[in-house]
Amino acid sequence: MRPAIRAGVVRPAIRASAVRPAICAGAVRPAICAGAVRPAICGAAAGKRPWLRPRARAAAAVLCLLLAAWLGWYLGQGPAEQTDATFMPAASFLRTYVRPDGRVNRPDQGNDTVSEGQAYGLLLAEAMGQDSQFNQIWQWTRVHLQLSDGLFAWHADAAGQILSPEPASDADLLIAWALLRYEGPGAAAFHSDGLRVANAVLAYEVTTGADGMPVLAAGPWATGRPATLDPSYWSLPALTGLAQLTGDQEWQRLADSALVLTRQLTHGGRLLPPNWAELTTTHQVLRVLPEVAPNANDTEPQAQYGLDSQRTVAWFAASCNPQARALAARWWTLLRPSARDDALSLRLNGTVVTPTPGVLPLVAAASAADAAGAKAASLRLLGQAVVDQRLYPGYYGGAWAAFGPVLIRTHVLGGC
């Protein structure tokens, strides 16, 4: 049995990314900007959402396409001309979702907070040089979410009370990276805090793969056999960045294993990465296999490419490793068809499961296109993602509308 429950606490299987942010408070928006209007699909709410009149639909679609095209062009200008546009979504995310006390709020998820959101806030504030806001976000995170072992509870309510103490390794990894990257006032203290978090990740969230290679599991609850993995937690820029910042080559070994396992999971890029995977022992041989979402309650009968694994594409495309970028480039072949590039979820062979559009699918497709050298398509998709987030705002879309331009158009979070 997989370790779904530890110490009486249900693991954080349904996380920020699993609660689909494109589905807005019980009704999915119509996809005006996808080039065709799709109906709402949330149960009874679907039949109650009014359709736009044909003439209004056409006008809205044209307006959205023009906005996306303009933003794609603007992002494609030289460094001096596109700097403001590149960081504008990041500034919007920090302004919209970070409260004055440093808590990253999810208004579309009951005003709660997840450790992933705090990590996103720290990284974006650091990348933009927002020292005061970086300090506020870290202090709130440290006081309300940090556990005695140095890791972070993944879920808290609007008052900062912990709802689930189980850590999620993606947040822990990105928080350590953000703290150790920081070069503003009082950097030494942040570096000390970051080193503590980094050491805790290595101590509690790493399992062992074939030939003794270290593998980043989904959390301390996920390191047994079979081990539960989320490939989207393998941020290659963070792993290689921590190797450089700490001097500990265990981080580079984690980056290397992430590439090896992702190549195995996707058959060398012929399939898309899954939301979840399982490291298991078969005939005394360690194998990594795609699996359905933990605690999915039969709602996801097959392994899928969705709002977790779309981050895998973005992180691999932003990597300095040419093999990782080559893998991301191969995924462009599966994501290139227009019915797939903004779909909320696909099967691993690219077949559409949920056609409802989302911001992160667009950012992932833009990342794959950039890795494949399809620059015009990448900028078009990136512009579409930013426009969609402006028209249909949400925490998760806002985060990835912010990361997309920074990862694709700059080396601020890459270091290549």
Question: How would you concisely characterize the structure shown here?
Answer:
The protein is α+β, with helices and mostly antiparallel strands. The protein is 48% helix and 12% strand.
Q: How do the strands of the widest beta sheet line up side by side?
A: 5-6-7
Cα-to-Cα separation, first versus last residue: 41 Å
Poorly predicted runs: 1-62, 76-82
Largest sheet: 3 strands, antiparallel
The shape, in one word, is: globular
Radius of gyration: 20 Å
Overall helicity: 40-55%
SS class: alpha+beta
Number of helices: 14
Mean pLDDT, to the nearest integer, reads 83
Report on the architecture of this protein.
The protein is an alpha+beta fold and 416 residues long. It has helices at 44-48, 54-75, 79-97, 115-127, 131-144, 169-181, 187-204, 236-246, 250-265, 310-317, 322-335, 359-371, 375-391, 395-409, and strands at 5-6, 9-10, 23-24, 27-28, 113-114, 155-156, 162-164, 206-208, 214-216, 227-229, 276-282, 285-291, 304-305, 343-347, 352-357. The strands form six sheets. A three-stranded antiparallel β-sheet has the order 5-6-7. A three-stranded antiparallel β-sheet has the order 10-11-12. Strand 3 and strand 4 (27-28) form a beta hairpin. Helix 12 (359-371) packs parallel to helix 14. The radius of gyration is 20 Å and the shape is globular. The chain starts with a strand and ends in a 7-residue tail after the last helix. The relative contact order is 0.13. Mean pLDDT is 83; it is low at 1-62 and 76-82.
